[in-house]
Design brief:
With about 325 residues, chain A is an alpha/beta fold. Chain A has helices at about 5-15, 20-25, 35-45, 50-60, 75-90, 105-115, 135-140, 165-175, 195-205, 225-235, 250-260, 280, 295-310; strands at about 65-70, 95-100, 120-125, 145, 155-160, 180-185, 215-220, 240-245, 270, 290, 315-320, 325.
């Protein structure tokens, strides 16, 4: 392997001190345009690049950003990861993907590790962490962006603006004459409760529809939990005429179960998802859903993180607009 | 934030030198069982952990493993990433996911970067790299595992054993009376050609079926390319009666197009995918496919990588068995 070019080599080739080379690279002190050019030309000529490990030790931070999500094999998070990488790559940051399985112990362990490993930043979708969990990272000045439906203390948040979309979904369901609304909701013990369920209840009530307690089931955000929850709903005394699911993955699980139970969607029961991942247009009937674009969530999260890396410290909240998309399942 | 415990603190608490603590941690020199125990107890008591950046600088390697794939939002790679993470986490390695978009320039840049960043190892699915591309990493003793259908020089390889599965797929198609076989193949300029296409041709010929040149289309491994390729095939003078696709994502694209063209699957044309990702059971009709389990590919790749990290240097090839799965699209 070829010998690594050092900052000293660059300084010698450019006829300046190593300190000057360092100023050109870091921008920490002004240098003349002429000096900048001759250093840059020496860098290009010699193929110099900073040793990332040495740079990490100097700055105390790696060039790695941790993305901590429940499950990277859920297409929503895979697409978010993709988008994040596309945005951060231009600044030479790499994305380390970590799965929590939505387990509290894993969420805590990975957050601790992200701090110990001196990551340049953390982007996380927490499920069961306390809302104070990010205070240690904030005190250590580690940039953090949370992507969630609720705020987690004084940290940047990317969150859906879904009021209009849910109102429209409820109206759409009501317009087809359906009165009894069921919900396949998230886990009962998720931090901050279940804002998606709350939104559905609010807008259903406003439209004069009722979401009775027996028509709400709680479970994980998985295909299997969606199937189980849907079965439970459809076995209730008077089954719901429309079921809204916490995400598309659980809605697809509901479709699996409808098949097994011999129920027709939307003939016997209408079905609405949340997110609009690829799955939504793959299933038949195509899934009516509330589009929450993972790509845009990743893009905004990256921008917020870079702002923090560049020095902003006051927390921001970015709303990503969700839209109702009517397809064949309603 | 609490003060970081140093190796020096551990040495003082255990009543030994810092060098002795270092020997206990690295195992580089023998220490007595008694010494080992008192150091370990001091470590546990103080909650000492190695500063990863300092450790990286000492070993010259980070605790990061690069996973370089065409597109993490393709469910095959998302599941592979998940499985890899599950396996490597026990050894405290983190997975950095990088997307190449199957572009040669990106493949080269990311490989260069993986070397400069001193990753602990690289797991890659190359598309257009030369088969010699990994020699620099090998000379630098960076552990590498390639996941691909062809070998890339003297590096570890995880590859499908799909002969039986393809033979069975062809026989299954032939048994339903279909004679003209079409193939939505991979890109024409992929390194090593297209082994999946070659396998189909071989087994079709053995079964007395013909894959004529006009019934082979080349394209990227994407849903859009699958749709385009399928349209091209179905517009040929005598369209194929069965179409085999390079992966499930392109097969789903073919289904999109069948819908648009008003063609019935399997009535008008039978369709076979490759991989058996979630998509395969979501689409209607459910997709007949050749199961190549991403989860198992990730697990084996992780094991091979850890063996190299632990000192093995002779390259190995691991075959992961592919199976034919008949569903409703044939």
């Amino acid at each position: 392997m070829q010998q690594r070019v050092t900052m000293h080599d660059v300084a010698r080739a450019a006829g300046v001190s190593s300190a000057t080379v360092s100023y050109v690279l870091s921008g920490k002190r002004p240098v003349t345009e002429e000096t900048r050019r001759s250093v840059q030309s020496a860098i290009d000529r010699l193929g110099f690049s900073l040793n990332p490990v040495a740079r990490s030790l100097r700055t105390g931070r790696s060039m790695m950003v941790a993305l901590i999500v429940p499950d990277i094999s859920n297409p929503f998070y895979a697409l978010l990861a993709r988008s994040l990488q596309d945005e951060l790559r231009g600044r030479e940051y790499h994305v380390v993907v970590c799965n929590t399985g939505a387990q509290l112990a894993e969420e805590q362990a990975l957050l601790r590790e992200a701090m110990q490993q001196r990551f340049a930043g953390v982007i996380m979708t927490p499920f069961r962490l306390s809302t104070q969990a990010f205070e240690a990272l904030r005190s250590a000045a580690v940039p953090v962006v949370v992507s969630a439906d609720i705020a987690f203390g004084e940290v940047d948040l990317v969150t859906p603006d879904a009021e209009d979309a849910v109102r429209e979904a409820i109206r759409h369901v009501a317009d087809s004459g359906r009165r009894r609304i069921g919900v396949v909701a998230g886990p009962r013990d998720a931090t901050g409760g279940d804002p998606r369920l709350d939104r559905i209840r609010t807008h259903a009530a406003a439209a004069g529809l009722r979401v009775s307690q027996e028509h709400i089931v709680h479970g994980e955000h998985t295909r299997a939990a969606g199937a189980q929850g849907f079965r439970h709903l459809m076995r209730s005394r008077r089954p719901p005429e429309a079921v809204l699911c916490v995400n598309d993955v659980t809605a697809v699980g509901a479709m699996d179960m409808a098949d097994r139970l011999g129920l027709d969607i939307p003939g016997d029961v209408a079905l609405v998802g949340h997110d609009d991942i690829d799955f939504a247009t793959l299933v038949r009937p195509r899934l009516t859903t509330i589009r929450y674009p993972a790509h845009e969530v990743g893009r905004i999260a990256a921008l917020l993180l870079l702002e923090q890396i560049d020095g902003r410290s006051d927390p921001r909240t970015a709303y990503v607009s969700a839209d109702f998309v009517a397809r064949a399942s309603t």
